[in-house]
Amino acid sequence: MKTLKGVIAATPTPLNVDLSIDIDRLVGHCRWLLGDGGCDGINLLGTTGEATSFSVEQRIAAMRAVAQSGVPLQRMMVGTGASALADAVALTRAARELGFAGALLLPPFYYKGIDAESLANHVGEVIAKAGPFGLKIYLYHIPQNTGVPFVAEAIARLRERYPDIVVGLKDSSGDIAFSRSLAVQFPGFDVFPSSEGSLTEWKSSRFAGCISATTNVTGALSQIAWSDPDSEKGRQAAASAMAIRGVLGGFPLMPSVKAALAAMTGDGGWERLMPPLRRLSPAERTELFSRLGKTDFVAQHAPATAG
C-alpha cells in the first residue's frame, strides 16, 4: 500500500560540531514534523538533507538509527540516489530492508546526455540488485542539479516494466506544467511537485501532495491548504505558506531553512552545514528575518526570533 500522500517535508540534516549527523536532533525533528509540524510525511536525506555530501556509510547509519527510533517509517521516504550504481544499490537495499515506505532515487548524475532507455536500464539494475520484494521507488527529477532529467519516455518504460515498484516522482524542476502532464499521462503514478503552491490544485491536477524543503517551516499552513483546498481558508493558508517560501527561497535555500529552524527552536546548532555549503552571513541573516517578519512566520512560530 502506498501511504505517502499530502504534505511531505524534505528534512534538513542537523550536524554536530565535528560535522557528524546529530541523530538525536534529527529524530526529534522528525517527530515534531509528523505532529505539531503539520506534515503527513518526511523525505529523509534528500537535497535539503545534504545527502550527497555524506558517505554511503554515514547515510545508512542515519537511516538505521531513524528506523530504530520508532518514528513511523510508513510515513517516510529516504533518498537513495548516488552516481555509482553500487552505492545506489546499497542505499536502496537498506531502505527496503529497514522498512521505509519508499526510496527516492536520483538518476546517475555524472554523465550527461543519457537516453531514456539507458536511464530506465539503470533504474532496473538498482531494482534487480537491491531486491524487488516490498520495494517502492520514487524517481527524483531535479535536472537543475543533476543535468539528467527523468523524461516522460523513461518513466513510461519504467511504469511498463515495474508498475508495482516505480510508483511516483518528486518534481523539483519548478515546472508545474511538467508535473501536471505526468499526473495526466500516468494515472495511479504519484506526482509530488516541490512547492506548497501546488497544494490547492491537488484534486484538479491529480497530485499526490508536495515534497518541499520549506514545509519544515510552513507545515501547519500547508496542511490547511492540503486538507481544505477549495475553501478561502485553504487558499489563504497556501498564500501565506508561499509568502514564507518566497522569502526563504530568496536566499540560499538550505542555509535559510536551517536558520529558520534555529530561530524556531532556539538551537543555533541547526545552522551548521556540510561543506561546500555555508551558513548565512550576519547581513543575510538579518535581512532574512526582516523579510520573514512581514509574513505569517512569527504568527506561526511565536517563539521565533532572529537572536
Characterize the structure shown.
The chain has 307 residues and is α/β, with parallel strands linked by helices. The protein contains 13 helices and eight strands. Strand 4 (102-105), helix 4 (116-130) and strand 5 form a beta-alpha-beta unit. 50% of the residues are buried.
Largest sheet: 8 strands, parallel
- Number of DSSP helices? 13
**Which blocks of ≥5 consecutive residues have pLDDT under 50?**
303-307
Alpha-beta classification: alpha/beta
Biggest sheet strand order reads 7-6-5-4-3-2-1-8
Helix content: 40-55%
Distance between the termini: 44 Å
Tally the beta strands. Answer: 8
Average pLDDT taken over every residue:
95
- Using only C-alpha atoms, the radius of gyration works out to 18 Å
Summed up, what is this model?
The chain is α/β, with parallel strands linked by helices and 307 residues long.
Give keywords.
307 residues; alpha/beta; 8-stranded parallel beta sheet; 13 helices; disordered C terminus
